[in-house]
Q: What sequence folds into this?
């Protein structure tokens, strides 16, 4: 079974080369290739996951012929592999959910480019998940940014171009800060591989030197990645970017791209900085406050929205707030809750985007609530799926959102001093979520007397239907059998080091 | 076997309800027979369970860790379950007649019947997580009932109802988490489950959390300042307002509060704390506030809804006394108020159904034209006021005696509030009665010649409720005794 | 045989309900025969029950384990019940004639019968809760009598009556709870039911409670500051109803206060406290104010109603002195005032019935046409003023001497002074009618009154009342001996 150890590397390369090959293909074949690659990556990751999970071990895979401490490495345990698997699954589902729509959203000659970008995105995500080298991480962060920009502006809608520019500026600011952080680290430690940086830092700390530069470095890295993952108040680009790009792009951007950065941050916290030091640096408190603010503000923005896509986008701001709030608690159970929420939010948000597109399609393409009245009857599958997503967001028991909420709350209670603020903000945020999501649910199930728009039967578009069913099952699975998943995450977190 | 029945009575109505819209009914009557049979079977099973109580509980599945979805029938639960399962078949019968004038019956009956199962789920819940789950579910399945008429008003009301309820649950969630972490178990145990070792130095935080939980569940029990959804939800069809917004839903809130107060946080811990005084003050305010608003209201159903607000706080007042006597009194008012209020709501519904009149000033002279309905309404009004001989008196008596017994000066004022509220109740109920019977000199009865009593489907439930009010009022000893034994944990 | 006690209570109530449920009668005759025989039979039963000498009382049934509906005809109760019986039967026969010109006779008589039973029940009540029960029922069943005419004015008066009464009843109920909780029993016991040690520990509490209960029961007895319902409600009713309202039902409040002060709390606890002082002040204010308002009132029935306010506070003042002599006086005045005020209202009724005159100034020269009526009026008026040889003189004599005897600073002389002034005012508002009636002045044409003497059914009750007033005034000893014995037992 040793061969499985090659799979992570293979999947990264597969995705990257498929991007290059796609440029020589036409749109249709690029689509097939892309589907194949995503599926293949999923299968490979599944094998890796199975292997690492059963052996309960994490493996270092040397890239090229330079051994450590100089060469480039991939390192993977069950958490990384599971994450990669999850990303691949969500990506596949998001793509399938928007498959039919893509033809309307982008010009046919651009379709090829679209799939190239997606392949690049996949490869960069995988690399962020797997890499053990911070400079490699930086490189793929940039690739990721560029791919994401492409995905945003490919619809050539005026607002997406503006959003892409904004996104570019913000992202580059973030990666700039991240790069400075890396430089400083390299300067202080002389290493780029995470494990070695960690041991050097331990020595530095023991010696008592470089205290302030180290703090600055941690700050730069964290803030850089936080900007890139749209933590409040760095979210200005987000609603336009998610709201007007293609369905699949929105689903992927919200559920994967920002999560890739967050996962990278988790790895850096555990593997480079060290959890205790991160906790003692006080940065957690900053993250905590911004997380809480994000939870409230995101929802408030969402309530004000009159456009379903933008509303869902703003909801992402709130959800990212949850995740950073989990970091901010500064305990390992808080971290577990955050990671669970990465999964839960990814599954739910992409579901929402995909189902929302189904609803807008049967409302003449309008995204305003007024027009969406009764859409749940016109497209029953999308309506049901949206309802599931909304319930999950509000935290109704049996859906995945409830478990995240439960985990966050349990983590909060065991963190003295942050208990009550967290719990109260959590409750308020639930109320706010209920206000905008359930309002939409009621809206789409309010029948209209004069049917302006025609209903579609869900049997027509099997792919879409199957995607929605998969999403719902995924959501319910996360909600109902969460125990193995949380066990796996808490084990995986300890195995990160 | 008995244990499995516990989950059966919860799930069976849900399945029966979900079936309704999918079966192609040839005749309306078939659907009605099907539903009534299903509901009756379920109620019969529930009552069998009450008399042959299964010793243990049943765990449906493990949620995460030690959190389970589990059912068990204990004393408190059996009171609520018994109450609900007694009223449901009658309300279903009533709604058959009522719904002849409304649209979308199938959907209505689907959710109406599902709610039965969900309410029983709350009653039978063995631990706080199960209760929380069914509590949330209750909100979701009752929202379609509130927005049934689909007017703009109904949709706004249902939205408000949903926001309030889910918001409340979100705060109750905090309490649940604390119980999960700091309790020795999540099951309900009379006297509380807080682990004294773990909570040594967190008294105040826990009290604040208790206050949150109280208000959270209190939203459903329409505690001030979270009460405004209830009168607005009166736009729903009357069977909903009567059964859900006077009994099942709102009493679930009160029931949940009793659960967390007596069975999770524990009265030992709460008694004499600032939390108790704060909540008592709020509850007392709600009692008077609800009545005053009822007096101001001119819409019949909304007036009754405000009355419900006040009466629910009677129950909560009993609960926050934190004594066994208080709990027993709260339970008795929970049961008795259910009879009184469902009866008066059904009368209001009968009036609306028969005559399409909604406002009190339109009811002049109805006493002569609808003698049965108004005789029954008068009885329920008297019972609500607390005239001796009817059930309202007994529960009020128990409440005040419990208040005095608790030797807590604030509760003396609570007793005063109850009596002020009784006076206001007399005002807002009897003005209706007097208007109906004494329309004024030279009233032209020809102008309301279209008004007449409804048919047996509506009258039979009403008569049963009246009989219940008299039985509880005149022969309350066994019931009150039972409630007291439950409150002392001997049942 | 003790159960015979229940007969005079339940029989008229049942008879009234049956009458209410009957179809409308075609002729008056069967209705009158029915009502008349029920009245007489009930009277006979009541007399039987009283002479049965039932020492242990009868517990009809139990509301809760400890709350018994318990009847025991003690001397006080028997006095009350006899007065009720006499007045009720006589006023009943009077209304046979009077109600000819009113609508809805059936309803009137059915409630008339019910109140009869309820009042006997009130008199025979053996414990506080039974009394409270009948007290509430009295309020409710008397209400249709008040708003019988259904004019806007009457309905408003009925509502006012109702809400004041309930306010009072609930204030009293507040105290009942405390008595129940702290007392040894709820049964009426001379000297009080609460252990003196318990009273000492909770002095403030019980003083407040006593004051509240006094004010509460005082509402029914028209005590300041909650008196204003009385002058509105009593005149609004048909005359015979006003007669029993003013003559008897207000005495329900007096009876309750006697029971409360002398048999529940105990006079020793109240004596010398601020409660007694406050009570005395309130009664004296009421006495004076009532007379003054009556003096200014031009409408005869209203004038009589104000007079009731004033006269009842005579009684209450006597009670508030907590002295044997004054107590005797009070009870005497209860009896005397019942007959007198009934007679006065019946006179007013007879005048309205025969001539339609309502205002005092219209009555000039009425003595020419209705000499018998006016003579009766004059005799009872003298009684009310307190001129020998009428009953009023005896009672006021005892009141005044009792007041002087107590030696309470200020009040022992202020009281008699106020009483005297009020007696002067009484003369001032009652006697002008007699004078103008018999001596309309030179050249006044009283022709329109000629031949208006009321029929026999009306005249006989009037004559009997006048006769009773004289009889008690002339031969007071039987009554005085009985009441003094009672006073010795109580004080």
A:
């Amino acid at each position: 079974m040793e061969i499985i150890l090659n799979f992570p590397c293979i999947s990264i390369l597969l995705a990257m080369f498929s991007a290059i090959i796609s440029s020589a293909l036409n749109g249709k074949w690029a689509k097939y290739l892309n589907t194949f690659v995503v599926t293949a990556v999923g299968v490979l990751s599944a094998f890796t996951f199975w292997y690492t999970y059963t052996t309960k071990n994490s493996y270092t895979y040397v890239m090229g012929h330079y051994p450590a401490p100089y060469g480039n490495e991939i390192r993977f345990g069950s958490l990384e592999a599971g994450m990669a698997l999850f990303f691949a699954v969500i990506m596949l589902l998001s793509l399938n959910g928007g498959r039919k729509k893509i033809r309307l959203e982008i010009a046919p000659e651009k379709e090829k480019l679209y799939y190239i970008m997606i392949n690049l995105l996949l490869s960069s995500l995988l690399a962020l998940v797997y890499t053990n080298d911070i400079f490699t991480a930086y490189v793929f962060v940039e690739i990721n940014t560029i791919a994401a920009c492409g995905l945003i502006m490919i619809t050539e809608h005026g607002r997406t171009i503006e959003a892409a520019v904004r996104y570019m500026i913000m992202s580059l600011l973030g990666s700039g800060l991240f790069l400075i952080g890396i430089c400083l680290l390299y300067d202080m430690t002389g290493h780029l591989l995470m494990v070695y940086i960690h041991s050097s830092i331990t020595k530095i700390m023991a010696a008592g030197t470089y205290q302030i530069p180290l703090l600055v470095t941690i700050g730069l890295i964290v803030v850089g990645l936080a900007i890139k993952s749209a933590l409040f108040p760095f979210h200005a680009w987000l609603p336009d970017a998610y709201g007007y790009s293609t369905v699949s792009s929105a689903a992927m951007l919200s559920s994967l791209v920002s999560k890739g950065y967050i996962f990278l941050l988790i790895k850096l916290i555990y593997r480079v900085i060290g959890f205790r030091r991160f906790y003692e640096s006080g940065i957690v408190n900053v993250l905590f406050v911004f997380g809480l603010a994000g939870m409230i503000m995101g929802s408030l923005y969402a309530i004000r929205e009159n456009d379903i896509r933008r509303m869902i986008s703003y909801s992402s701001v709130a959800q990212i707030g949850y995740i950073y709030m989990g970091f901010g608690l500064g305990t390992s159970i808080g971290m577990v809750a955050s990671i669970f929420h990465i999964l839960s939010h990814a599954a739910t948000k992409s579901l929402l985007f995909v189902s929302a597109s189904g609803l807008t399609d049967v409302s003449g393409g309008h995204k305003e609530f007024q027009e969406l009245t009764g859409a749940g009857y016109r497209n029953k599958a999308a309506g049901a799926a949206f309802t599931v997503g909304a319930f999950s967001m509000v935290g109704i028991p049996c859906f995945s959102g409830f478990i995240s909420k439960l985990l966050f709350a349990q983590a909060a209670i065991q963190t003295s001093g942050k208990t009550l603020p967290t719990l109260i903000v959590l409750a308020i945020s639930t109320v706010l979520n209920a206000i905008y999501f359930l309002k939409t649910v009621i809206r789409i199930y309010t029948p209209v007397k004069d049917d302006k728009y025609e209903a579609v039967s869900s049997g027509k578009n099997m792919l879409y239907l199957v995607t929605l069913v998969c999403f719902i099952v995924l959501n319910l699975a996360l909600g109902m059998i969460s125990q193995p998943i949380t066990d796996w995450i808490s084990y995986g977190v300890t195995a990160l080091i | 076997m008995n244990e499995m029945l516990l989950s059966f009575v919860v799930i069976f109505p849900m399945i029966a309800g979900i079936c309704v819209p999918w079966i192609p009914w040839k005749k309306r009557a078939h659907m009605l027979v099907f539903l009534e049979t299903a509901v009756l079977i379920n109620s019969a099973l529930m009552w069998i369970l009450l008399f042959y109580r299964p010793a243990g509980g049943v765990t449906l599945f493990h949620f995460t860790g030690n959190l389970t979805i589990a059912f068990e029938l204990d004393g408190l639960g059996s009171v609520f379950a018994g109450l609900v399962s007694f009223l449901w078949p009658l309300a279903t019968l009533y709604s058959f007649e009522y719904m002849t004038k409304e649209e979308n019956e199938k959907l209505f009956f689907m959710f109406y019947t599902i709610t039965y199962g969900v309410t029983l789920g709350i009653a039978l819940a063995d631990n706080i997580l199960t209760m929380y789950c069914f509590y949330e579910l209750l909100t979701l399945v009752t929202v379609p009932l509130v927005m049934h008429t689909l007017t703009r008003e109904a949709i706004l009301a249902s939205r408000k109802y949903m926001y309030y309820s889910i918001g409340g649950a979100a705060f109750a969630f905090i309490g649940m988490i604390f119980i999960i972490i700091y309790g020795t178990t999540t099951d309900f145990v009379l006297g509380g489950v807080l682990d004294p070792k773990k909570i040594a130095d967190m008294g105040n935080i826990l009290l604040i959390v208790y206050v949150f939980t109280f208000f959270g569940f209190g939203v459903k029990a329409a505690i001030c300042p979270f009460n405004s959804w209830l009168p607005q939800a009166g736009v729903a069809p009357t069977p909903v307002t009567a059964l859900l917004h006077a009994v099942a839903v709102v009493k679930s809130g009160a029931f949940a509060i009793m659960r967390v107060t007596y069975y999770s946080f524990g009265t030992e811990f709460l008694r004499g704390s600032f939390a108790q005084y704060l909540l008592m003050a709020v509850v007392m305010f709600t009692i008077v506030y609800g009545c005053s608003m009822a007096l101001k209201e001119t819409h019949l159903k909304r007036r009754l809804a405000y009355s419900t607000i006040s009466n629910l706080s009677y129950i909560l007042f009993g609960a926050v006394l934190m004594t066994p006597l208080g709990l027993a009194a709260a339970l008795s008012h929970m049961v008795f108020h259910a009879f009184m209020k469902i009866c008066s709501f059904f009368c209001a519904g009968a009036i609306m159904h028969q005559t399409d009149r909604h406002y009190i000033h339109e009811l002049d002279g109805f006493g002569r034209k609808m003698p049965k309905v108004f005789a029954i309404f008068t009885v329920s009004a008297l019972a609500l006021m607390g005239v001796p001989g009817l059930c309202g008196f007994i529960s009020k008596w128990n409440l005040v005696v419990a208040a005095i017994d608790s030797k807590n000066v604030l509760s003396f004022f609570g007793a005063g509030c109850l009596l002020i509220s009784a006076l206001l109740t007399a005002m807002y109920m009897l003005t209706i009665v007097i208007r109906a019977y004494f329309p004024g000199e030279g009233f032209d009865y020809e102008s309301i010649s279209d008004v007449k009593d409804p048919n047996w489907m509506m009258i039979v439930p009403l008569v049963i409720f009246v009989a219940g009010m008299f039985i509880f009022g005149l022969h309350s000893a066994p019931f009150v005794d039972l409630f007291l034994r439950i409150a002392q944990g001997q049942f | 045989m003790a159960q015979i006690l229940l007969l005079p209570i339940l029989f008229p109530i049942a008879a009234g309900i049956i009458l209410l449920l009957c179809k409308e009668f075609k002729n008056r005759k069967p209705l009158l025969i029915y009502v008349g025989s029920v009245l007489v039979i009930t009277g006979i039963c009541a007399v039987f029950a009283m002479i049965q000498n039932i020492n242990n009382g009868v517990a009809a049934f139990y509301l809760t384990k400890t709350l018994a509906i318990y009847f025991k005809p003690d001397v006080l109760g028997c006095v009350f019940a006899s007065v009720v019986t006499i007045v009720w039967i006589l006023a009943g026969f009077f209304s046979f004639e009077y109600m000819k010109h009113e609508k809805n006779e059936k309803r009137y008589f059915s409630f008339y019968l019910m109140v009869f039973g309820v009042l006997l029940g009130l008199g025979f009540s053996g414990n506080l809760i039974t009394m409270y029960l009948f007290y509430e029922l009295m309020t409710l069943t008397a209400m249709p009598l008040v708003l019988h005419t259904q004019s806007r004015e009457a309905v408003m008066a009925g509502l006012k009556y109702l809400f004041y009464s309930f306010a009072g009843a609930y204030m009293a109920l507040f105290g009942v709870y405390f008595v129940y909780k702290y007392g040894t029993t709820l049964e009426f016991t001379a000297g009080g039911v609460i252990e003196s040690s318990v009273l000492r520990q909770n002095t403030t509490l019980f003083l407040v409670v006593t004051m509240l209960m006094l004010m509460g029961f005082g509402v029914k007895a028209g005590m300041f500051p909650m008196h204003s319902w009385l002058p509105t409600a009593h005149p609004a009713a048909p005359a015979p109803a006003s007669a029993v309202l003013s003559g008897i039902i207000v005495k329900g409040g007096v009876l309750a206060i006697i029971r409360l002060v002398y048999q529940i709390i105990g006079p020793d606890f109240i004596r010398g406290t601020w409660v007694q002082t406050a009570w005395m002040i309130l009664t004296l204010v009421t006495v004076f104010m009532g007379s003054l308002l009556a003096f200014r009132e031009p409408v005869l029935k209203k004038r009589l109603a104000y007079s009731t306010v004033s006269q009842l506070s005579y009684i209450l003042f006597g009670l508030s002195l907590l002295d044997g002599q004054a107590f005797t006086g009070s009870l005497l005045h209860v009896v005397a005032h019942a007959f007198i005020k009934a007679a006065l209202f019946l006179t007013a009724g007879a005048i309205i019935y025969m001539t339609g005159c309502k205002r005092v100034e219209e009555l000039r020269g009425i003595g020419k046409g209705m000499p018998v009526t006016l003579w009766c009026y004059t005799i009872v008026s003298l009684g009310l003023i307190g001129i020998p040889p009428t009953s009023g003189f005896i009672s006021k004599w005892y009141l005044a001497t009792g007041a002087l005897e107590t030696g309470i600073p200020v009040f022992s002389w202020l009281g008699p002074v106020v009483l005297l002034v009020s007696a002067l005012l009484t003369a001032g508002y009652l006697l002008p009618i007699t004078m103008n009636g018999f001596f309309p002045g030179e050249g006044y044409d009283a022709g329109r009154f000629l031949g208006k003497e009321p029929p026999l059914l009306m005249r006989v009750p009037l004559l009997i009342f006048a006769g009773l007033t004289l009889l008690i005034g002339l031969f007071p000893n039987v009554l005085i001996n009985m009441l003094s014995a009672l006073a010795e037992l109580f004080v």
Observations:
- Chain B has a mean pLDDT of 88.
- Chain B has 19 helices and two strands.
